[in-house]
Amino acid sequence: MSEVENGDCELVIEGGQPIRRVHFINISITAEFDGEVHNLIEDRQVFNEGRSNERTRKRRDLNGSVKEKIHSSEDPEDAVVRAIEEELGVGGDIDYESDYSEDMDKESPSFPGLRTQYRAHYFKAELKGDQIRRERYKEVQSDKITYFVWD
């Protein structure tokens, strides 16, 4: 499992059962422009599956702007900066603050039948100055493009 190898999660055995443990951040991102505060949302993902009509997954109903797994070698604050830089292409000093954390224990939709324990760290961030792009942001990966828009 590449997730384990790259430090995105760990697998443990408790009571004879495998459990997947994942730590992640969820960042709600805002920016003020045109006299209003705008919220950034993940609009959609377009998958690159080698077909002429690519599959699109709508994402507008997600809580938060950016979600990212925390690598085993970093703390949540480092993950916030990395996620904003990687997913939005935004650099410079990121203005963010911790909001709260929570634990969840449920089956993962990506790994049916495997119990997953999540540790979620919620943050609020505000983009300023040249970090703000009024048009959309996008993250290009080998298997998909994720689009973010202002709401």
What attributes characterize this protein structure?
9 strands; 151 residues; 9-stranded mixed sheet
Q: Give the tally of structural domains.
A: 1
End-to-end separation in angstroms reads 36 Å
Q: What's the count of strands?
A: 9
Instruction: Give the biggest beta sheet.
Output: 9 strands, mixed
The CATH topology is given as Nucleoside Triphosphate Pyrophosphohydrolase
- Averaging pLDDT over every residue, what do you get? 89
Runs with pLDDT <50, length 5+?
Answer: none
C-alpha geometry:
globular
* CA radius of gyration: 17 Å
CATH class: Alpha Beta
CATH superfamily: Nucleoside Triphosphate Pyrophosphohydrolase
Query: Which structural category fits the helices and strands?
Result: mainly beta
Helical residue percent?
10-25%
Beta-strand proportion = over 45%
* SSE ordering: HEEEEEHEEEE
* H/I helix tally: 2
**What's the CATH architecture name?**
Alpha-Beta Complex
Give a short synopsis of this structure.
The chain has 151 residues and is mainly beta. It is 11% helix and 52% strand.
Description:
With 151 residues, the protein is mainly beta. The chain has one domain: Alpha-Beta Complex (Nucleoside Triphosphate Pyrophosphohydrolase), CATH 3.90.79.10. The protein contains 2 helices and 9 strands, in the order αβββββαββββ. Strands 1, 2, 3, 4, 5, 6, 7, 8 and 9 form a 9-stranded mixed sheet that branches. It is globular, with a radius of gyration of 17 Å.
